[in-house]
């Protein structure tokens, strides 16, 4: 059970990078064009899930291990919270966009709205990483009937 | 008329939850209800000949202010869709766990096997 | 009647038909695929409603949801007939749904007409302020991003919490079971030898 046929594998090899890049693009330009952290995170998770479906679990886990994905989840939450706390530290208002007030950028450029791209990156990690982890755990679940005739779950994942 | 049809979509999901005894079917009904509610909220903010609430370099600001649709329901629905994915993933996990325990998706069977 | 409303009516009828098929069909995997049709209809409706952000998120979420549901139902898609609801109960459910529909239609008379939202009638509504001052105050050209990450950041914080909790719950539920008389770690080579499910 090492992945799908050669057709699926070839197509995946061509499109995986484009899906990944599109996710990053949607995340980074979320304040200028349609998109944002939510869409970008789900698209990034989709690119890794495509790898899992086409090549098997081991290949995807060699690209992004479960431990890294769990750390990325926490990093996303910390980026979001710490950025919000900077506003509280400077002006005593939680979620205050002080960077925009102090150094306003040019409108319609990539640097134009202070902390909002940073929030978008945090949300992207926060949404994408746990979805990938959930899919891997769901895909790794196998059911076996033991000697007493009861069903039990077997996780093929190695415990850290 | 559009609102009523959107409500019919919601009620289809409600009927599914009321009558079906398969746990996956109940999850599907929940998902349909969620779709109806999200669509209804976005419908409430639409303006005739509305334009997307995203400003561009070439946007005519006067026309934009007069015809932009409501950004507030769209922002709230954006979070609601992603939360819906999380809750439904939790529901699917529960279904799979129940299948492991009882060997069936049928809640009547599960109730019978309990005692 | 504007052209958008006609498009939306057609799309809504398509979505309702897909939803009814998803509810009533016997095979679970066909049901899941019909649910995907509902999601695609939602995505196209969002495009007609001038919400491209929502369209992107909806189509991506729908793909993931379909993968999750197919993973749950693959190989066990037969719906058993034993647990089917009896005819009187089914009629009662239809009656309840129709009563709710009647009340809903009475309530919908008080809503503003489609295409004339409340915020355009009330000058001091917050949405007007977001549209007028959003670019100047936050620097974000996308007003929706400005709303979710600047004006209403608390909502997004709560959303992140709910998503984290629900996915953590899914992970805990799916974790490998430990035996009652102590923990027994099962290696996967043994599993493959016995042939899985």
Name its key features.
heterotrimer, A: about 160 residues, mainly alpha, two-stranded antiparallel sheet, C: about 200 residues, disordered C terminus
Mind summarizing the main beta sheet of chain B?
Answer: none
Q: Largest sheet of chain C, described in full?
A: none
What overall form of chain C do the CA principal axes indicate?
A: globular
Largest interface: B-C, 82 and 91 residues
Tally of helical segments of chain B: 5
Our estimate of the beta-strand percent of chain B is under 5%
Residue fraction in strands of chain C: under 5%
Short description:
With 160 residues, chain A is mainly alpha-helical. Chain A contains 6 helices and 2 strands.
Characterization of the model:
The complex is a heterotrimer of chains A (160), B (115) and C (197). By secondary structure, chain A is mainly α. The longest helix of chain A has 26 residues. The two termini of chain A are 24 Å apart. The model of chain A has no long low-confidence stretch (mean pLDDT 85). The longest helix of chain B is centred in the last third of the chain and has 32 residues. Chain C folds into 2 domains: 80 residues; 76 residues, no CATH class. At the A-B interface, helix 6 and strand 2 of A face helix 4 of B.
Q: What topology does this entry show?
A:
The complex is a heterotrimer of chains A (160), B (115) and C (197).
Chain A: H1 6-28, H2 37-55, H3 57-63, H4 66-91, H5 98-102, H6 116-140, E1 141-145, E2 151-155
Antiparallel strand pairs in A: 1-2
Chain B: H1 2-19, H2 23-44, H3 61-67, H4 71-102, H5 107-114
Helix pairs in contact in B: 1-2, 2-4
Chain C: H1 3-24, H2 28-48, H3 52-73, H4 87-108, H5 126-138, H6 143-151, H7 153-173, H8 188-194
